[in-house]
Specification:
Layout: H1 9-36, H2 40-45, H3 57-65, H4 68-99, H5 105-117, H6 124-133, H7 140-164, H8 168-176, H9 181-192, H10 194-209, H11 213-218, H12 227-237, H13 242-276
Length: 277
């Protein structure tokens, strides 16, 4: 039999391209982490060198000096309710669009898809006036509602694909046994749509936790600032202390990295299902 090369030229080129993209993506993050473990003197000598002495106390100094505990708590109190709201609304809407039949179903779903096509920056001004009109400007509740509205279009799209991937006979069996659509949704289909739920959870968490523009627009009080917004103000206050800023940035990046690491398999499965549907 003729010998086949283990790797074709195209496959090698694709792998080299992916390695290059991975390096370009991770390099800034690694540099920030290494910088956060250096002393200021080492940083001035060679910014890209490995630390001679790993100074883990920089994280404690950044946490205490920059009041990151307050910003971290604000991010948690904003992100977790927003993720719960996104999951609740998107799962119900996704089930309705995937399983139910009602007038205007396709047209309403198309309106939700407009949220994926319209740049979010173009909605900032009307969103600001809407939050202001309902009296929730400079409040955590207003920020939660705004973040939820921004994350919902993609979440509904993924949940609809997740429910459509399930056998429709499951819902029919519940209805034949005398159950309602709510029973079919809550007891049967929602547990089976776990990959889509995990994908929506990760995407919503990343979106809200890393959000900068909406907190900048809707929050004025320092006591309500989230981590990304707090870091922007630290740049002016501690501009000369690059090590402190790097340590604060590293602490801010840890929760999204941990969330994605734990849920990456379910996340990728759910996203692939959404792309194929």
């Amino acid at each position: 039999m003729p010998h086949r090369p283990a790797y074709s030229v195209t496959r090698v080129a694709v792998q080299l391209f992916l390695i290059a993209i991975t390096f370009i993506t991770l390099a800034p993050l690694v540099i920030i982490w290494l910088t956060s473990l250096k002393t200021s003197a080492e940083l001035n000598v060679d910014p890209l060198a490995l630390p001679h002495h790993w100074v883990f106390s920089n994280f404690i100094d950044a946490w205490n000096t920059a009041h990151l505990d307050r910003y971290f708590l604000n991010s948690v109190l904003t992100t977790l309710p927003a993720v719960v709201l996104v999951l609740a609304c998107a799962s119900l809407a996704g089930y309705a669009f995937a399983s139910l039949t009602f007038r205007g179903k396709q047209q309403i779903f198309a309106l939700f898809l407009l949220g994926l096509m319209i740049p979010s920056i173009s909605l900032i001004v009307p969103l600001y006036y809407t939050i202001n009109d309902i009296g929730l400007l400079d409040s955590r509740y207003g920020l939660i509602l705004a973040e939820t509205s921004q994350a919902l279009p993609l979440a509904i799209f993924i949940m609809r694909a997740g429910f459509r991937d399930l056998p429709h006979q499951l819902r029919d069996a519940v209805l034949v046994d005398g159950g309602s659509d709510l029973d079919a949704f809550w007891r049967v289909l929602l547990p089976l749509a776990r990959p889509a739920l995990m994908s929506v959870s990760v995407l919503a968490f990343l979106s809200v936790w890393n959000s900068f523009l909406l907190p900048l627009l809707l929050i004025n009080s320092d006591s309500l600032r989230t981590m990304p917004l707090g870091l922007s103000y630290l740049q002016g206050r501690y501009a000369s202390n690059i090590v402190l800023l790097a340590a604060a940035t590293s602490l801010t990046s840890l929760p999204p990295i941990l969330i994605y690491t734990v849920l990456q398999r379910q996340f990728i499965k759910g996203v692939v299902e959404g792309a194929l549907k």
